[in-house]
Write a structure and sequence with these properties.
Layout (H helix, E strand, L loop, with lengths): L28 H7 L7 E3 L2 E3 L8 E3 L4 H9 L6 E5 L10 E13 L17 E3 L4 H11 L14 E6 L2 E8 L6 E9 L8 H15 L3 E7 L3 H10 L2 E13 L2
Parallel strand pairs: 9-10
Antiparallel strand pairs: 1-2, 2-3, 4-11, 5-10, 5-11, 6-7, 7-8, 8-9
């Protein structure tokens, strides 16, 4: 959810329609996903639920009470950390610690907006599967260590670009909620940035979503001005911002 995009996206025609800031589509994406399209991942205890640690580091508590936090504690391993959405500080029981907050912006690509035009490219984009999980984790660990796990590949479709057989760029889906599919895991190896790979991969997913009647959306760190500006130029609209807090089971 908090990801770094250091590669400039290839030139895309300027969109003429205005950008309007509106309310969040999903105020708590992990909660929405774990209660709907991705409920099969949910590990549940009382007022808490979470993704398995080898899928993605996100969890949910239904309120900010110590009791709800204890439920979360019961389904975490010692030393495990997970992110939850919470605007207010949390009441932590013994054994749990809380860090943050970290601001995250949510952006969506409107269903009625034409897809942005990208210049022609001879880059070959290939589908990735969980058979590629190890090299996907290795690549993403350069850009945002710890967010992409060995089973994150199970959360949606992924695409990659190779150079001489080596995976050098990738992008895919994460928290899919009904018809809204999140673009995530976008990264390019530092040695191959500046070649437009990020745009090629994003456009592949956006085309897939449009053809399937789905809506593309994404999350980006609120302080990542470069990535936000790029997404704005591609035509993504701001939906709002929420706070993430890192919960760690210490004992």
């Amino acid at each position: 959810m908090i990801e770094t995009l250091a590669e400039p996206i290839m030139t895309i025609d300027k969109l003429t329609d205005s950008m309007e800031t509106v309310s969040l589509q999903f105020e708590n994406p992990p909660m929405e996903a774990l209660r709907s399209s991705q409920q099969h991942f949910a590990i549940v205890a009382g007022r808490a639920r979470k993704y398995p640690g080898d899928v993605t580091p996100f969890a949910v508590i239904e309120d900010n009470s110590v009791e709800a936090a204890r439920d979360l504690y019961s389904i975490m391993r010692q030393g495990e950390s997970t992110y939850i959405v919470s605007e207010a500080p949390l009441a932590m029981p013994n054994g749990l610690s809380c860090g943050g907050p970290v601001g995250v912006k949510q952006m969506t690509y409107p269903r009625n907006r034409p897809l942005p035009f990208a210049s022609e490219s001879d880059v070959i984009v290939e589908p990735l599967s969980c058979a590629n999980a190890a090299e996907m984790v290795e690549l993403t660990s350069i850009a945002f260590p710890g967010f992409f796990r060995i089973r994150t590949c199970e959360m949606g479709a992924y695409y990659g670009i190779r150079h001489e057989g080596r995976l050098v760029a990738m992008c895919g889906e994460r928290m899919n909620i009904g018809d809204f599919h999140e673009i995530s895991g976008l990264c390019t190896h530092p040695d191959f940035r500046g070649r437009g790979y990020a745009a090629v991969l994003m456009m592949q997913l956006m085309r897939d979503h449009r053809m399937a009647g789905l809506q593309s959306y994404l999350h980006v760190s609120a302080n990542n001005a470069n990535a936000i500006a790029l997404y704005e130029r591609m035509g993504f609209d701001h939906r709002g911002e929420f706070q993430l807090r890192l919960i760690t089971r210490d004992t």
